[in-house]
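## Example pair
The file below holds two records. Each record gives the amino-acid sequence first, followed by its structure token line.
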Amino acid sequence: MSARQHPFDPDSLVEAILSSRKYRPLGIPEETVRDLIRQAQYQSGDAKEIEKTVKQKMHNLVAPYLGDADYQAASTELDSAFASGVQSQIEAACTKIMLSHASTRERLPLLPEFYPAIFAVTGMPGTILDLACGLNPFALPWMRLPPSTRYTAYDIVQPRVDLINHFFSLMGLQPTAEKRDVLVNPPEIRADVAFFFKEAHRLEQRQKGSNRAFWQSIQARFLLVSLPTANLTGSHPKLDQHRRLVYATLEGLDWQVKEILFENEIVFVIRKPDEA
């Protein structure tokens, strides 16, 4: 049998990716890689082409170019800040963590107005889902949520989930962050509000057209989809493009949308119809 005819072995590719130096420390769910393989197989039957596509999708999904926290150092700094009992030190430690990733770094100047503007529309939520959360949970001190609010965060990077749970425990909250690929395995929790911040365009790159079914699967009264108004360098406006993505995704659905436009981010507050 020639190399060209050699059957594609998905198990070997899964093992190669997850055990690689690049991804092994991140603890990415196996289901994520298998999903990327399945999608690539729809496009090509060539083993090399599948591998190339999957590795590119993995790179885009994990997005090392957006930055990440030093998890051990961040954990130590959080311990010190909470031990001090000084709110400004706690907020400084959270700010430093959020500075390490482009998504939350861009939002930092908006924090004093960001969540008040959102919750003015949704009401103060009793249950929040933070989907593909990244480092967004470290904005909790600025959300001003009541202690009774249940906040569940989902991410595919295990050390990030561990740090978030450590932070939740220090905050006196249940450690409810989960390692989960929300596209492959959407949460079944019913919630008042679901955050899906700066991920819809990346989800579209991962699997074209996947936002619609994913949004429909989320059992939240309000789905908050945010997108950047420009590219990372600020050199190319993205507002019109991202508006088109959202409204094309919602075409034909009887869902209400209210836009909240900030300097560098737009939030689409999507109200799902109440179930009968």
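Second record, same layout:
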Amino acid sequence: MRGALAAAVTVLVAGCVVGPDYVRPPVLTPDAYKEVSGWKVAQPKDEAIRGAWWELFGDPELNALEAQVSVANQSLAVAEATYRLARALVREARASYFPTVTVGIGVTRFRRSSSFGPSSGGGAGVSSGGGSSSPQSDFTLPLDVSWAPDFWGRIRRAVESNRAGAQASAADLETSRLSLQAELAQDYVQLRALDAQRQLLDATVAAYQRALQLTRDRYAGGVASRADVAQAEAQLGTTQAQAIDVGVQRAQLEHAIALLIGKPASSFALPAAPLAAAPPRIPAGMPSELLERRPDIAAAE
């Protein structure tokens, strides 16, 4: 009888456990592909340290700007706060494994009055001896201890869920960091390319101004026609308009860089200077191992 009762209790307890352990769904992956040699199963490496990859450009100004992204960018600060919240939820879930102790301190200060009380005749009334007793204090120290054993696995499942959420949040944080750093590098290189273009346009404008003056002198001397002067003026005006457009594009990129490093665009400025160093060599093909380092894939998993 006792054996049957124990077996029944065991079955009931096992049946009340909150769900089975997570097992990754099986996926049929071939050992090799006939079109591709060197095929291998991917091994996620999103936690790998990427390093200061922007130093390949050899630009001190870019290095200084990239260092400010992790410090002052507001989008990255939000992602870091979300990650800290996820870590706090893990600690909160783990705390449910242990007893909860609640302690409170209370102090009551009072004085008993003897002005009202029973009269000498036995009835209610005012006593003849007025006054009050000395002040008194009551101290209370309530202590409450509660603990619920994790028989059904609810706390364990909550810890597992919050831990997975923290891992995904960490991957999201690295995704934001990598995206912002890449966007800053792209905007900076484009801005320096516009500086080089603006330098070329300024030299072209100066040359066209001299050509226009020469054409006007030739027109005044009867050597050139009015159409030649109009053509020189059109060339100069078109080049000046292109220089203005380049200036507008550069201002937009400068504002974008200010936003990425957490500074107001109205007070941020980058001196005009084309890229001094040659850009790094880009290989014709990128290795597939780069996909293993993508943090967004780790977050999805």
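Notes on the second record: Residues 124-129 have pLDDT under 50 and may be disordered. The chain has six helices and six strands.
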